[in-house]
Specification:
Elements (H helix, E strand, L loop, with lengths): L4 H39 L2 H38 L2 H35 L6 H30 L4 E4 L2 E4 L2 H5 L2 H31 L5 H28 L13 H14 L9 H26 L3 H6 L1 H10 L2 H15 L4 E3 L3 E2 H4 L5 H32 L27
Antiparallel strand pairs: 1-2, 3-4
Helix pairs in contact: 1-2, 1-4, 1-6, 1-12, 1-14, 2-3, 2-14, 3-4, 4-6, 6-7, 6-11, 6-12, 7-9, 9-12
């Protein structure tokens, strides 16, 4: 059977990268919200401190599940650079690989180490030390996302390099790290993560409130935290997204005057061909904006209800809306990713390396086998992650296994515990 190895390799990377990004967004957002909740729990006193400490454990456990499975998807995704895209590694590996190396060495190792200390440090470390751990985890998660976006931003707008001996050499680290498509995308992704975690937290809380849970106070506070995150991030995410249009590749706008002029220039430099992106890029842009508008409507409704705790608990229709809205940020993220990445085609590195030239020169059978294995593996990981999140979210705070369970009351012969220990 005839097939296009290039298209198959592209689809494979789209599936794996898109799947991994879903994990990343929730991880970034939940890490931030868990760190903020633990800060409030550490500063609080009395009964409020106990409720907030239980919230940290419950939402922290869901964060750890998503993080752990997401790490595996990230490793699977990065294997493809060496397997399917050898032409890219040989031509621009020095520049593209630099921020990826910085992400691994300076961010990921620190993040995973401190997360391990946070997980196993419950009731063993001073509460302020334990609080510091989750903030280190959060900040290094931001750093990890930034370095990844630096690499991707260079694909969109290659700066800070020269071509020598048939390969790219990095000559300006500042230009690479300060590349606007990377910096603005970082703000976009950061608030997108908060938006994703906010809808996730609000949706899970709405599920329990809809079922008339006995943990009313727990999930009333949780749905409020989720809605505050949604309201606070729904407009900044579109602001950072809109600012990126100033650095949009001329061809991404389609057959406009600028796009056609750029097309003519590419024909002169690289020979005849179609250098305008496929229509799928425009579809991604439209779907992304439609999903954002729906999220904005939910945010406005949440803003109206936030001052009234009774409405948050008893509004059954609103609970259903929050449940249905959980997928919206994921839809917006995937659509935005399609617009950003498909809109760069036919370039792997815009104006430097065509996608067809980045493909590894391997037997086509290897690409088929790689596609099948990677796709099945990512699908299994996604299903497992969804099942685990749903299972532990449905159990509620009583099913928390992260750290020791919060004390139900004072132990005989000891003083009452007025503050949580971390």
């Amino acid at each position: 059977m005839d097939f296009d190895p290039l298209m198959l390799a592209r689809v494979q990377f789209a599936l794996t990268a898109g799947t991994h990004f879903l994990f990343v967004a929730l991880t970034l957002g939940l890490a931030t919200l868990v760190a903020l909740m633990q800060t409030r729990a550490t500063l609080a006193r009395g009964g409020a401190a106990v409720v907030r400490a239980r919230m940290v454990r419950f939402w922290g456990q869901l964060y750890v599940i998503n993080y752990a499975v997401g790490i595996v998807t990230g490793l699977v995704m990065e294997f493809q650079f060496g397997l399917n895209w050898g032409g890219m590694s040989s031509l621009v590996g020095e520049v593209f690989g630099a921020p990826l190396a910085m992400e691994t060495i300076a961010a990921f190792f620190i993040e995973s180490t401190f997360l391990g200390l946070w997980i196993f440090g419950w009731d063993r470390l001073n509460r302020w030390v334990h609080l510091g751990l989750i903030w280190v985890v959060t900040l290094t998660a931001y750093a990890s996302a930034y370095f990844i976006l630096v690499a991707n931003g260079w694909l969109q707008r290659p700066v800070g390099h020269v071509m020598e001996g048939g390969s790219a050499r990095l000559v300006d680290v500042g230009a690479l790290l300060g590349n606007p498509p990377a910096v603005l995308a970082f703000g976009h992704v950061l608030f997108g993560g908060l938006l994703t975690a906010g809808f996730f937290m609000a949706g899970v809380s709405a599920f329990h409130l809809l079922r008339r849970t006995a943990e009313v106070e727990f999930f009333r506070r949780s749905v409020r935290v989720g809605l505050v995150a949604v309201v606070a991030s729904v407009f900044p995410v579109v602001v950072f997204g809109g600012m990126q249009f100033a650095y949009l590749q001329p061809t991404k706008g389609g057959a406009t005057e600028r796009g056609l002029a750029e097309q003519a220039g590419f024909v002169q430099r690289f020979g005849p061909g179609d250098y305008l992106p496929p229509g799928l890029a425009t579809v991604g842009e439209v779907v992304m904006m439609a999903a954002w508008l729906l999220m904005t409507l939910v945010a406005v409704a949440g803003l109206v209800k936030l001052p009234f705790g009774r409405w948050l608990v008893r509004g059954r229709v609103f609970h259903v809306v929050l449940l249905v809205a959980v997928p919206l940020p994921y839809v917006a993220m995937l659509a935005g990713w399609v617009f950003r990445e498909v809109g760069r085609q036919p370039w792997m590195v815009y104006g430097v390396l065509k996608t067809e030239d980045a493909l590894s020169k391997v037997d086509p059978g290897w690409i088929i086998a790689s596609f099948v294995v990677f796709t099945v593996l990512m699908a299994v990981l996604t299903v497992v992650n969804g099942w685990l999140l749903a299972r532990f979210a449905r159990r509620g705070p009583q099913g928390v296994q992260l750290g020791a369970a919060p004390p139900a009351g004072p132990v005989a012969g000891s003083a009452p515990a007025l503050t949580p220990t971390f």
